[in-house]
Amino acid sequence: MRHYSQNRALVGACVLLLMATIGWSQSLTWLGTLPGGGWSAAYSISADGRVVVGLALDATGQRRAFRWTADGGMQDLGTLPGGGWSEAYSISADGSVVVGWAHNAAWHDRAFRWTADGGMRDLGTLGGNKSWAFGVSADGRVVVGCAENADRWRRAFRWTPWSGMQDLGTLGGSESWAYSVSADGRVVVGLALNTSGQSRAFRWTASGGMQDLGTLGGGSSAAYDISADGRVVVGWARNAAGQQRAFRWMSGGGMQDLGSLGGSSSTAYDVSADGSVVVGSSGGRAFRWTELGGMEDLNLTYVYMLTCLVTPDSDLREARAISSDGRYIVGVGYNAATRREEAFLLDTQAPFPQNGDVNRDGCVDDIDMLGVLFEFGESVNNFNRCVDVNRDGIIDDADLLIVLFNFGQGC
After folding, report:
1. Can you tell me whether residue 327 is helix, strand or coil?
2. Which of 3, 220, 328, 399 is 20 to 30 Å from the Cα of 114, by its Cα?
């Protein structure tokens, strides 16, 4: 008995050592849809990754703004009194304030600011009928978007509770759109038309007004997000060949082409608080960009998760937002289990228990052991990666040891 205990302790120590080398893994949560609905997309996430907002179809096929939490699931935020559709595009750092647009009783699109206590508030317009909110400051007090003026031109706006809606102007053209704002609400980015009618990414401050950020050699660009301190801007721009490419612009450093996946077009949608991590979409594939690693296809980086932990054939199509610390990513992908596009929440650092349950049926048994033995000694490929328990690239005694130590667990 003592000999058995010593051996088990030794095996346990080996397994713990193996587990330590695995490091951090990931988890993917499909957020589903509203009851009876058939589609959803996530557009923003709180700083701690616990609250997600976006839009989803309800049972009648109407688009509705939603707010999702792990505990409460997907909550329909409704619409303005008498209206129908709504969409949520941004959320405050603590997840308490949501902004977007909703139909009013006249079925005009109107920018809204939502809180649990006050519900959905119409932010008005610049003299026209319609408005849309796309971004909000960290504390939820400054909202940016675009609104129609009295001449029905769409103009970028900055709204605060104490000053209302401010027209931010244009770059000499007729229209502009504001898409994001810095954490303190002082710097705004978006898209504005210049005197030639070309769309240009802009960066606005109260002291400097609207600054044209230029392009990558082409004629147009658009800015979609900004770092917490307002010094890094991301979006898309045309290059000299007319291709649309994701860019990262830095104050004092200019515009950098982030490339693409497979030579296709690319768009950057969001950036981490410190400006170091960018997410977006290229060729229908969600990407993450860092200065060290460049542009990576999230479907390849997390292929183990998609292949083994999620229904095969699922994929991540657009990464629309990233948490301030760069850990959580949300967007829209294809959920093969439900056969529909759905909002997703990817945790890139969640600890994942490697207990040897190769086929994920909740029981570590002969089937799991045979799976490892059948591929023993092989390098990992698309067909056997699920039996690479410790994910070191080869199926070997380390994987078998984990299965043996946990044999019978969950059965």
Report:
1. coil
2. 328
Query: pLDDT for 237-248, tens place per residue?
Result: 999 999 999 999
DSSP 379: B
Q: Which helix (H) or strand (E) holds 109?
A: strand 109-115
Question: Left if phi > 0, otherwise alpha if psi is -120 to 50, otherwise beta: which for 272?
Answer: beta
Give 245's contacts (C-beta < 8 A, 6+ positions apart). Answer: 216, 236, 237, 238, 239, 257, 258, 259, 260, 265, 266
Distance CA 149, CA 129 (A): 8
Whether the Cβ atoms of residue 201 and residue 223 lie closer than 8 Å to each other: yes
Q: Given 300, 329, 347, which residue is the final one in a domain? A: 347
> So what's the pLDDT on residue 11?
41
Residue 14 within a domain: no
Per-residue pLDDT reduced to its tens digit, 267-283: 999 999 999 999 999 99
- Rounded CA-CA distance 192/198 in Å is 8
Does residue 377 share a domain with residue 229? no
Displacement of CA 161 from its chain's centroid (Å):
28
Instruction: Determine the structural domain holding residue 392 and report its residue range.
Output: 353-411
- Could you tell me which residues are beta bridge partners of residue 205? 209
Give the Cβ contact number of residue 354 at 10 Å: 18
How many domains does the chain contain in total?
A: 2
Could you tell me the pTM of the whole model? 0.84
Residue tagged 């053209």 (tokens)? 173
Residue 129, C-beta contacts closer than 8 angstroms, at least 6 positions apart: 106, 108, 148, 152
Residue with tokens 């949501």, as numbered in its chain: 98
Q: Are 219 and 364 found together in one domain?
A: no
CA distance 365 to 361: 10
Query: Which pair of tokens denotes residue 173?
Result: 């053209």
Q: In sequence order, what are the beta bridge partners of 332?
A: 318, 343
Q: What is the largest CA-CA distance in the chain?
A: 88
Q: Give the C-alpha separation, 367 to 330, whole Å.
A: 35
Tell me the backbone φ, ψ of residue 49, rounded to 5 degrees: 75, 10
Would you say 130 and 148 are in contact if contact means Cβ atoms under 8 Å apart?
yes
Spatial distance between the Cα atoms of 240 and 284, rounded to a whole number of angstroms: 23
- Gap between the Cα atoms of 62 and 122, Å rounded: 19
Q: In sequence order, what are the residues at sequence separation of 6 or more whose Cβ sits closer than 8 angstroms to the Cβ of residue 353?
A: none
282-316 per-position pLDDT tens digit: 999 999 999 999 999 999 888 877 777 667 789 99
Last residue of a domain, which of 314, 347, 380? 347
